[in-house]
Design brief:
About 65% of the residues lie in helices and about 0% in strands. By secondary structure, it is mainly α.
Length: about 150
């Protein structure tokens, strides 16, 4: 029972959207378009939430701006382009793959490659070190045999 309650409390913030009743448009189709656009835009304060989910003041301003642009007759693409022009590709939760965002797209793969290479090198070194410890040179074996014979007196 406690697990269900804890799960409910953990999911509660994500179940409620930050859009306030006074922000909603009277036209349901325009409101649906506004929600669609808002769900694709990053909150510049929270950075891991869409402006539709964020309670930040800037997110509210951006939601209102989206709705104003839609009321003015802009298409979804025009609204998105306007915001990208104003704030850059960073405002998009799914930025396009282009030269300016190449680093953004390739960094996770580079981190995985470097991390995998480091783990591989560590494993190789550990194996090499254990092989060196396990095998003795002929001189070391002879010396060990001599020491063991002297101990046996």
């Amino acid at each position: 029972m406690r697990f269900v309650l804890a799960l409910y409390l953990a999911l509660l913030p994500s179940l409620s959207l930050a859009v306030q009743p006074d922000e909603l448009l009277a036209d349901p189709k325009l409101e649906e378009r506004a929600r669609e656009i808002s769900s694709e835009l990053r909150c510049l304060v929270c950075q891991n939430q869409s402006i539709d989910d964020s309670d930040a003041g800037l997110a509210r301003d951006l939601r209102l701006l989206v709705r104003e642009r839609l009321k003015a007759g802009d298409s979804n693409i025009q609204v998105r382009d306007y915001l990208v022009e104003r704030y850059g590709d960073f405002i998009l939760l799914k930025p396009p793959f282009k030269n300016e965002t190449l680093l953004l797209w390739l960094t996770p793969f580079a981190v995985l490659l470097v991390g995998g290479g480091a783990l591989f090198a560590m494993a190789q070194r550990r194996r090499r070190d254990s092989e060196v410890e396990a095998s003795l040179s002929e001189t070391d074996e002879a010396r060990l045999k001599t020491l063991l014979e002297q101990d046996g007196r």
